[in-house]
Amino acid sequence: MDRAEAAAKEWARERPELPMLPVETVGRLLDAAARVIRDHMNPLLKEAGLNVGEFDVLTPLRRAGEPHMLSPTQLYESAMITSGGMTSRLDRLERAGLVERRPDPNDRRGKQIALTTGGKRAIDDLIGPMVALEERLISVLTPAEQETLNALLKKLLTGL
Q1: Angle formed by the axes of helices 83-95 and 52-63, to 10°?
Q2: Across the beta sheet with 69-70, what order do the strands follow?
Q3: 103 in helix, strand or coil?
Q4: Which domains does the chain have, with CATH numbers?
Q5: Which residues are in coiled coils (predicted)?
Q6: pLDDT of the chain along its 160 residues, tens only?
Q7: Which one-letter DSSP state was computed for residue 102?
Q8: Kindly report the CA angle at 157 between 8 and 133, in degrees rounded to 5?
């Protein structure tokens, strides 16, 4: 019995009128996400000298293509955090030499965040092992199950 099932059984005993499928489903989603990050991604990121939050800043910059620059607003919207949280991440990454703040060519008052050569190298070195890890993590499912799970999660997130 996993934690979600145990919680659902306890709630069913205490509040039998409540539906338990949502309790189990959302509980398992949360548990899966926490385990993937804690047990699998964090060790890989730690080897690279990064944490999940920093990875979440560097990867959209790398995916943006040349010149690997985005506005702070684009970055914090992609990471779904506050602008204050983004500022502290950018400060750490800038001190580490992985990003730099540059003047925005379209707005004299604005700044763009650019991936440095070192930042690009860090992500390029890490993304292959990260995708291989993700591939291993979902390999307990058949390819058809992986496609179904992916489609269902997309539908769920679209509904949210």
Answers
A1: 80
A2: 69-70, 107-115, 99-104
A3: strand
A4: 3-18+28-159 (1.10.10.10)
A5: none
A6: 899 999 999 999 999 999 999 999 999 999 999 999 999 999 999 999 999 989 999 999 999 999 999 988 888 888 766 777 788 899 999 999 999 999 988 888 889 999 999 999 999 999 999 999 999 999 999 999 999 999 999 999 999 9
A7: E
A8: 85
* Six token digits for residue 98: 């992985």
pTM over 0.90: no
DSSP, collapsed to helix, strand or coil, labels residue 142 as coil
Output the CA torsion sign for 146, 43, 114, 57: positive
Nearest in space to 111 (alpha carbons), one of 97, 124, 94: 94
